[in-house]
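The protein record now logged underneath.
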Amino acid sequence: MEFFMMWFAAVFILIIIVVVFHCFPNRSQQATDDTNNRTHGQRGLDKSFLKTIRVVQFDPERFKEGLECTICLSKVKEGEKTRVLPKCDHAFHMECIDM
C-alpha cells in the first residue's frame, strides 16, 4: 500500500511538472524570439507605409475634447507631432505609432 502511494505521488508530481512547462513557455525564450523578430524587421509597419500617414502638429481647436494617444495613454499637448490615420482621423504621438 505504501509503495503504491509513493508511486502515485511521484507520477502525479511528474504530470504537474509536464503540464506547467507545457502551458507556460519559457519567458526568456519568448524575449529572445521578440528581439530576433524586431532585428529582422518582422514586426511593425514598413517605413515606406509610415511615410504615407500624414504628420500634423496637434491643435486643440481641431479636437475640442482633447486627444489621448491610445498607445501610451497620455494626453497629446499642443504643438506635439502626431500621425493622423486617413479614414478615421484617429491621431497618435508620432513616436508611439512609429515604434
Q: What stands out?
A: The chain has a mean pLDDT of 77. The radius of gyration is 25 Å. Residues 45-99 form a domain with the Herpes Virus-1 fold (CATH 3.30.40.10).
